[in-house]
Amino acid sequence: MAVTRRTALAGGAAAAVATTARPARPRASGARDVVVVGAGVFGAWTARRLQQAGRRVLLIDAWAPGHARASSGGESRLTRGSYGADEVYTRMAWESLADWRALSARSELPLFHRAGILFFFPQMEDYVAKSVEVHRRLKLPTQVLDRAAMARRFPQIDFDGVEIGLHEPEFGALMARRAVQTLVAEFVAAGGEYAQAQVAPPIAGSGPLRTIALASGETVAASRFVFACGPWLPKLFPDLLGRRIFPTRQEVFFFAPPPGDARFGPGRLPGWADFNQGDIFYGFPDLEGRGFKVAHDAHGPPIDPDAGDRSPSPAALAEARAYMERRFPAMHGRPLSEARVCQYENSANGDFLIDFHPERPNVLLVGAGSGHGFKHGPAVGRYAAELLTGVRRAAEPRFSLATKGEVQNRAVH
Ligand SMILES: Cc1cc2nc3c(=O)[nH]c(=O)nc-3n(C[C@H](O)[C@H](O)[C@H](O)COP(=O)(O)OP(=O)(O)OC[C@H]3O[C@@H](n4cnc5c(N)ncnc54)[C@H](O)[C@@H]3O)c2cc1C
Asked: pTM for this one?
């Protein structure tokens, strides 16, 4: 392989990612059209879209774009088009992929690895049939593979008990934290204002919101406000969202592949998910030498994003290792290189929330990524900006506040 500057950097050279937006206080003067609170993937894309629509935007985060405890702060996130019958998410993922690729092409370090995605299943099931139907309609180049074909193409996986798979060659892995940082840096370079500040919770009252109070005691005025605060949304709007967004504790583990063994790199191993009779495990190839990542997709216990313990649990580690060693025999006994505790911010069924506050007509709520939101950031940002600027008249029912239940019953996978 020819080593270009880009591949050398991607290979793990200790080059600084010159993408971190400079933290500053919000400027005291200057009219702003919109303040976006939260510089995770949803807030960053919303701010960028509003800026591209000609709005003067202030983007605020209490810590930093894609910081360690934000849901967007992980190393990597899968992007894929398979969503069963939930075509709305297939469309958004496909539309977003073009934006991610374009952003990655503008970035010094890669933000997207086109590793492909392989979902595999114990037998033909409705999810597979519906995904294929949607993909054919949208002309996605997804392939249906039987067990023998999968075993030939991906011999590092033990497909025992697996009958069928969906291979999506165009999708792959997004470098999550880096992508958010790059996007915010682009927003700032284009004249957007980014500030490190905490909006003091809660946002109470009714009627148009004129100013928000910062924890520092300052206030910030704007015509409109977007709150894209991920798992912190229930803290800002406890009455409205306290029982509608459920942050859960999720653990991910990275293991070192065998030395000199290239079978676990992104050129050979795709991003994958094992549907495993509904008890999904998923993982990533060894991206940029950070390790083979594996996680259990089941919702963990409730977590407070500020106070929650971020130490990985021995039980979850043992579970991840046991799964990995069964499906990826060459990873048997390989050492753990890293572990992280993050949180999903789930709606009751997994649908996003992108809707106006029912009592605050100039406040847009954007969140409930529900463990699958990252890939959709570009489409969510576009959708939110269109709602806020009036280009889109009404919220899609699935994203409306009215459809957000109070009992967890996950339906979107
Ligand atoms: C382990 C794990 C694996 C995942 N895997 C995938 C995957 O493979 N593919 C996929 O598409 N998605 C995945 N997701 C889901 C995806 O990462 C999230 O849906 C998405 O990152 C949510 O982004 P967000 O912008 O809504 O929230 P966040 O990234 O949490 O951003 C919210 C921001 O708001 C800021 N904030 C909060 N309160 C305040 C305040 N009062 N004042 C100022 N700022 C404030 C926070 O500091 C934070 O930066 C995964 C999530 C996790 C945890």
From this structure: 0.95
